[in-house]
Design goal:
six-stranded parallel β-sheet; seven-stranded mixed β-sheet; Rossmann fold
Length: 341
């Protein structure tokens, strides 16, 4: 919990949550430490109200169910998208719950999963049952970063086998994008300032790596004219601009990393967007109804290297503070593991 933006969070005893009539309470078994949590802690998200408990990539077990919940039950192992939907607005009716007009986000609009228990509303719409073979730590690592990368690469990016993909930033979202693009038969160029992150990307199948803060020329040379698809998985004006500059004609840029306005506006060359017919797209999470397709794909992938380290809840504040550094100190996804009786 933190009561001041930027002040080191502390582990506190707080009242256990109660389910709403349409919601559940989940006993958290594991939760990812994501750069989005860092943004919330640093005060970049206007939805966060103090005091606050972050955390939004979770897996756990349902321990209490509201009176109007029809499809979920106590004892069920579940996960949830980081964008939770109302199930009733026009966006939800069209199947686009990831941009729900009345969305709520655990760890942002309300208290999240850096806790023993978390309350989740509209459980029939948002909860995703976990298969028995998928352990909770891996399921948590598939949270917002892997789910967002799944949508960014395969849905928004419309990746085809044989295309070149440039992945700018090989943290949790970026390394997930590398894994997914390789599985789809693409040729991947991984871009990062961290040698460890690039080494992991190489082990996961990236064909080439670029260690540079100004990588566009090198990416275009490697790919013979530019990437067909380029993703900014960092969320800085410079990395967004580099991703767009890495594209070939009629290429697609997908913005994955969050871009808080306070960090500045990326210098996008709109004259080139017009002349080269570039496409600029966003990717905002993954709908609950898409999770079965993602989990089916996951069952055919080797996720052993996706999780970088497992830590306790007491170690979570320091792990969050480490993200102040521009280069990630460790490769892979950091996951908080909570002991369950």
């Amino acid at each position: 919990m933190f009561s001041e933006f930027g002040a080191l969070p502390s582990v506190e005893v707080v009242p256990d949550p109660e389910p709403t009539p349409d919601g559940v309470v989940v006993a958290v078994a594991a939760t990812g430490v994501c750069r989005s949590d860092w943004h919330a802690w640093r005060g970049h998200d206007e939805d966060v109200r103090l005091p606050h408990v972050p955390g939004h990539e979770l897996a756990g077990t349902v321990v209490a169910v509201g009176e109007r919940v029809r499809t979920r039950r106590v004892g069920e192992r579940v996960t949830v998208p980081f964008v939770c939907a109302c199930g009733a607005c026009p966006q939800c009716a069209s199947g686009n719950e990831q941009i729900c007009d009345h969305q709520f986000q655990p760890g942002f609009t309300g208290w999240g999963s850096f806790a023993e228990f978390v309350a989740l509303d509209h459980a029939d719409v948002n909860l995703v049952p976990l298969p028995h073979h998928l352990d909770s730590v891996t399921a948590a690592a598939l949270g917002c970063r892997f789910g967002t990368a799944f949508r960014a690469v395969l849905r928004q990016g419309e990746l085809a086998a044989g295309e070149w993909v440039a992945v700018h930033g090989c943290g949790g979202a970026g390394i997930s994008a590398v894994l997914l693009a390789v599985a789809a038969g693409a040729r991947v160029v991984a871009v990062d300032l961290s040698a460890d992150a690039l080494a992991l990307a190489k082990r996961l199948g990236a064909e080439a790596t670029v260690q540079s803060a100004d990588p566009a020329d090198e990416v275009r040379e490697i790919t013979g004219g530019g990437a067909h698809l380029s993703l900014d998985c960092v969320g800085l004006p410079s990395t967004c601009a580099a991703s767009v500059a890495s594209l070939r004609k009629r290429g697609r840029h997908v913005q994955v990393g969050l871009m808080p306005p306070g960090q500045g506006v990326p210098p996008i060359p709109m004259h080139r967007v017009i002349a080269d017919e570039l496409r600029i797209l966003g990717s905002h999470g993954l709908q609950a109804h898409e999770y079965p397709a993602m989990l089916d794909l996951v069952s055919r992938l080797d996720l052993g290297q996706l999780v970088g380290r497992r830590i306790s809840l007491d170690e979570a504040p320091a792990a969050l503070a480490e993200m102040d550094q521009p280069v990630a100190p460790r490769a892979g996804v950091t996951v908080v593991e909570l002991p369950r009786p």
